[in-house]
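Notes continue from the previous slide.

Worked example: a multi-chain complex. Inputs as given:
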Amino acid sequence: MPEPSGPEDKRVAIEARGIVKEFGEGPSALRALDDVSISIRENEFFTLLGPSGCGKTTLLRMIAGFEYPTEGAILLHGEDIAGLPPFKRPVNTVFQSYALFPHLTVEENVAFGLEMLGRSKAEITSRVAAMLKLVRMEELAKRRTDQISGGQAQRVALARALAPGPKVLLLDEPLSALDYKLRKEMQIELKRMQHETGITFVFVTHDQEEALTMSDRIAIMSKGRVLQIGSPWDIYDKPADRFVADFIGETNFLTASVLGIENGLARVRLKSGAEIVATIAEGLTPRDEATLVVRPEHARAVASGGQVSGAVENVVYFGTDTHIHVRLDAGDIFMVRQQNRRTQSCGFEVGDRVGIEIASDAAQVLRD
Amino acid sequence: MASAAEIAKRAERENIRGRWLLSAPALVIIFIAAIGPLFVMLAYSFMTKGDYGDVKPVFSLDGWFSVFFQRDIFDDTLSIADAHLSIIWRSVRLSVITTLATLALGFPTAYFIATRPRHTREMWVFLVTIPFWTNLLIRTFAMQQVIRNEGVLNTGLRALGIIDQPLQIMYTDWAILFGMVYVYLPLMVLPLYASMEKLDFRLVEAGYDLYASRLAVLRRIIIPLVKPGIVAGSILVFIPSLGAYVIPRVLGGGKNLMLGNLIELQFGSGRNWPLGAALSITLMAVVMLALMVYVRNAARSGAGHG
Amino acid sequence: MARWGTRRFDIRVQPGFGTIALFTFALLYLPIVTLVVYAFNGSDSLSSWGGFSLRWFADAARNGAVQDAALRSFIVAVLAAGIATVAATMAAIATTRTAPYRGLGFKYAFINQPLMVPEIVTAVALLIVFSRVKVWTGYSGLGYLVLAHTAFCIPFAYLPIRARLEGMDSSLERAAADLYATPWMAFRRVTLPLLRPGIIAGFMLAFVISLDDVVITEFVKSGGQDTLPTYMLGQIRRAVTPEINAIATAFLALSVLLVTVFFFINRRKA
């Protein structure tokens, strides 16, 4: 999909133009990527986000040179790199399995790329030391790679990929093998390193939370297509379609009939009869029937009033907040997330009648 | 500028061409010194036998004909080639008995190894592996020392007073049978063990839980689950038994021939190369048939489990 | 019988299996032990025990025919196993870690063919072809033996190398390519070092197989080209003296040594 280019638009590092990738041939061919166009700016933390099988890893491997597109072109700083084998591309990868060479030490792993580039001994030594310092692995330089932990292996893989000074660093789900706490730490570490090195990071993940916290911009992919590209805020708050809204965060969907449109806002009537004003997803002309999306934290359960009402079906306590699942009179489930207060519970019990108050401008009309 | 599609195609083509080049030396060597000669032999089986061995390049079906029939030297009448057929029959019979005997010994042995504690299991497997990798001729010769008239077996039996005359085992079918069972036993145990090692003993537990006796567990649970190993082991024993050459030559003496010796004879004193070639191809055909049965069986059991 | 009632029921036990297994192991080792014991027999004949002696080993070592045959066996085995290992390594790389392509199944069948045909059949087929070639070219050296041995060694060398390759993470080579290694450098610096245990195992298997071969050698060799096994085969048919036991025992010791080394290489890998 076309991307709005603003005045803040920086130089483009990587551009994918109309990429199509088919595996197999003839009618049984599997289309892994279907007309994908993305441009990634210099010095950007760019994330490809989507469920497994959406084509994000295929796209990454194509940038690295391990797959060839069936159609389309990949440009690195404006130059077509289709004909370049992986070992001639100034792009390095952090592999999902890390792919550390088991017969080499940590140090030798990090030095590998520099050696292959034919750098001098002195340069290699100092560069390797600098990289190990960057990832805080100086002490384990002489260890063999089967003698270090998963988190450490991850750091070595990063140092190894950064050592040759690539223009772009590709990261293929690098955190997926780590446990929760380590993952959180590495997310911050990665951000820091990207900031310090100023290298463009292209990050592949299926974890929406990871994508939201780390990225400058995110491309959401599904079934070989790019559904939306934007900042984390854009993606969360203004999802372009139902898939994006559903994939990112928790969401309530309501059906409504559109009464009229003015100034980019739609007046809609809910099944309960209440009328509200909703924003409209970018580039969309709503039809008569529309789907509304409301984030759970943008609604409030109230004892009386509200635009819709129903009965409490379940109350789930989460520590910082409580989720209240309400069966609406129209039959759908609506979830409300309320911040917990220290002194009192949420005040509702299963079976209670409640109203739901949707904050003004919280609802958005979606493309289906 | 080449299009993306062309580049992808070219990379694919280069990859496959590279793979052919890499495998070329192995393929060429095997063609020259294994497969190619088989085709030459096939051609030889349709030629006329030479006077002093070798062949004359004249088409003839005599080689194939004399696998099954013989022409009387004096009156030119045809009769069934009893000698050949009895040797072929002996080969098949001894191979089948060898297979059954190795199975009877090998199955409990493999099961025994598979049920040892993990750390001692390796040692037992190792004990089977050593004879497996020991020279076949040496093992045949070793067996000869056990069964010959003054050998360990006869001396032992005599010392125990069980017999007073040595049993004549050497140069009988029994000697060949002992030799083949002994030599091919590891070939039965190893594949059987490989499939028993994977046996999930929770299934055996489930069998006992459902009131099965030990025999019923063996028959209804263990044997069906390790069937691929039984088939593999049987094939691995049957095929070399059928083509055995060294064992009958050393233990069977000159009289008790098997197919392998009959073939050799045609290239030696028999000087009938077309017949030898035809017999070789017959042997190979039987082996291929057995392998096909195996492959089909393996494919079926693979599909059943997958 | 009360004792039985309290005994733990072991689900793994099948009655009689242990006895048969122990009988099998006895059967496997009794002949070998007999052979070895007689090798140290001081008596002139195999029928009586003449006390412990190394004289037959000394005799065998002094025997010129044995020396020749042993040296020839060794040369053929080293050459055949060496060539087979190189060819098998290349073939293994060409046939693993790839999407199926046209001809892949053909390659498998081709490479494993020597395993599927009875040795005697290959042996006479080689006799037919090589006897012609010997007449045409006038060359009757060791080349024929080396070539024939190489062919049947290839599948044995191929097996462990292929197994090793299939267990290898292919992203390692991708990582090397990503780090600017050309295909050749990636092979030399990453694939080859990781493949080394498989290659060693393959070479050793091929070496043992070549060293052990009787049938094909018997039919391919020219006059005066006995290897140790064919020399022994010839001797066994004549009068058997404990010298054969001594040769066999030495041979056996070598095989056991190789198998043991092989076993431990494989175990370390796992």
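Summary box: The mean pLDDT of chain C is 89. The two ends of chain C are 46 Å apart (CA to CA).
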